[in-house]
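Researcher: Go.
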Amino acid sequence: PSIFISSFALYDLLASMGLRADYMIGHSLGEITALAAADKLAFREALTLIEQRGYAFHDEQLDDPGKMISLMTSLQPAQELVEESGLELSIANVNSPTQVIVAGSSKTIEQFKEFLDDKEVTNKILFVSHAFHSPVVAPVAERFRERIQHLSFRSSSTRVMMNHTGSFYPNGARDLKKVPDLLQEQILQTVNFQDSILKLHDK
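Model: Structure:
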């Protein structure tokens, strides 16, 4: 909650100075801050959303929460390395042309690190609690979705980018009911932040 509150407070300060945005984007957890800043749900409900996300990760006691590893490379070489390794891995984040994050089980990531070291590919295992944005956390994502079904999402003139689809969160009354499902998918699928930034730039 502290990251959400501090980020929202900073936006609120900028908004009080007259800054307004036509589009919003957030990275992973920051996507919920973007939804709140765009007024697609009330602040208190956004805080509940953040809390339930954290509780879902805490309460779902996975046998192996997995690990993540950073590669200093672009997407295509990262995909080729994953394929060549023959390991069961997921591209979790495409952050920039020079950084891609891969996720998987703890054992698999350790094996992948050895593979990357042999290939002399710059890498670093991240100090995170789970293998976010991968199938490893599927039970967590399902628990999260179940806990946020009651929240009310609304239309907004400010569009919010979904990094896992490259499109915007819906505005229509019927489609807004799908937002809990979209937030579940967001935990499981690749955060393609690089492409999302480029798409907003083109707007």
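Model: The CA atoms of residues 104 and 168 lie 28 Å apart.
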